[in-house]
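Listing S7. Sequence submitted for prediction.
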Amino acid sequence: MLSKLSVRSTLATLAVFGLLATAPSAVATSRDAVATPAAAPASDTSPSAGVTVKLPDRVADHLGAGREALIDAVSTDVLSQSHDAKGLAPANAVSKLAAEGREVVVDVRTASPGWARGVAYVEAPRTVHSQPEGWLFIAHRENGRWVSGLEGDPEFTDHVATSPLVGKAERKTMMDYARRVTSDKEASPTAATANTGGLLLPWMPDYYMTLTGGPHSHTGGSGYWSSLDFAGGNASGRVRSSREGTATSMCGAGGGWTRVIHPGGFSTDYYHMWNTTYYNGTSIGSSALLGTIGTDVCAGGSATGAHVHWSLRTYDANLFGQYTWLNGRTIGGWTWWNGSSQYTGCATRLGYTACPGTAIYNRTS
């Protein structure tokens, strides 16, 4: 008899290549995705074996027979960059993650001849303070092979500059961060207060939410303390973008994770939201509605109370495509400082100090 893991891996592999008439809920849950049309199944050693693939029919038609190679290329890139999969062969990495109840997802959303674009992510463990790893990707078919570029790496930068799947306005914003370089001094938390280009906290200006978690790692583990948690307040629970930019719903329609790329070298993540607006590389204004505080775990993790997990990312020379430090940076009129341990840090403004449990007004200056 097959084990649960074997059954799950088999189902996931079948779903990748369209051999299931209806994809089971554990395999592809996005409302705007369907199972891939029939193709030759991947071998057990294929980088995409066991990977969950979301591929609408209209996109599969553009990709044709090359879709298997595309999924292999993106899967290889994802597993090489994932913190929890580095150093493992792709098949071993997917099996390890599956044994932990976690999926690797490749969501191909748009395509044109020789080009494909979408989102890929590795689900977080179903534990408190865990957060997923995710990337936008653009892939180009060059000399008969797919070259995948994940957000933040050189291939992605090159593809943004030339892909017909990136609009003029979006390219301007994305190139601003994709090619941005800062000096070592500017990239140090010990330097003078860093300019974040007027980023706001994730709700309307002059309203408040309560700080429930000071600076901490995006994953709750190692890494720069890039994230803050907020709940309650008088903003009606509505989560809004920290600045104008290009927004993408990382989990697809109905999922509670959105990433916004801003001019000036920063992007922001918002997780655990309910009632989300679906965006797919969509230009939005500052304070655009993204969703409401919630407990959504569309890409893993855990949330015991409705809140928004907000994270800061940058593309400095030293932190290329990574979550970055908050210490010393000013967001929403407040300068944020690390505490003695994760979640305990506070913010200062005009001589006032706000620590976890404090209501904080979102200020534009």
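Caption to Listing S7: primary sequence and predicted structure tokens for the chain studied. Confidence is low (pLDDT under 50) at residues 1-41, 182-193. The chain has two domains: 7-166, 208-361.
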